[in-house]
Design brief:
Number of strands: 7
Order of helices and strands: HHHEHEHEEHEHEE
Strand content: 15-25%
Shape: globular
Strand order of the largest sheet: 3-2-1-4-5-7-6
Amino acid sequence: MSGKSIISQHFPAISEKKLDLLERFVEELRSHNQNVNLISRKNEDRIWEEHILHSLGIAKVISFNPGTKVLDYGTGGGLPGIPLAILFPESEFLLVDSIGKKVRVVSEIVTQLGLPNVRTSHCRVEDLRERFDFAVSRAVTALPRMEEWLKGKINQKSTHPIQNGLIYIKGGDFEEEIEGLMKPYRVWEMSAWFNDSFFETKKVAWIDLTD
């Protein structure tokens, strides 16, 4: 099954234009990954499943409204930010990473793909002076640190069915860690949406991190 077919199988309403952009993104990832370690080289043949579809698991939880401001922190190779930005072109994304060479590559990829709704920044999350509706991440660090980094950066008023906050992807059992934050939360099993064995232990979690 082709990469685009994998995505359209799970997101049947996606346009051909968006599928083409995702395909170009995969090509750029593969090309730049030869020089800068954006994703593991061991699973480059599984980019569509383990990186693109994985990132789009967030889109099974929420459809970002036009004008929604989304922070992708610890973006690495532009994940999950770029696939989400392609899927939601009327939302605004800021992709942040503390590793300069990765940010430079991601910025170049964004330019190559022509994504006007994406900005990049080489900085630490805690140094940002902006506020966002949602933060997204592929579990770059422990939850208490995530909460600390995002303190004061999430807008209170939400225009979505779920409250503004953090939406992130993580594997294994981490609900005890979430409960320790004493915040409203919800967890979804990705295996309920995607039947590939890779997703058996993968989850999407939402935590209300509004002040």
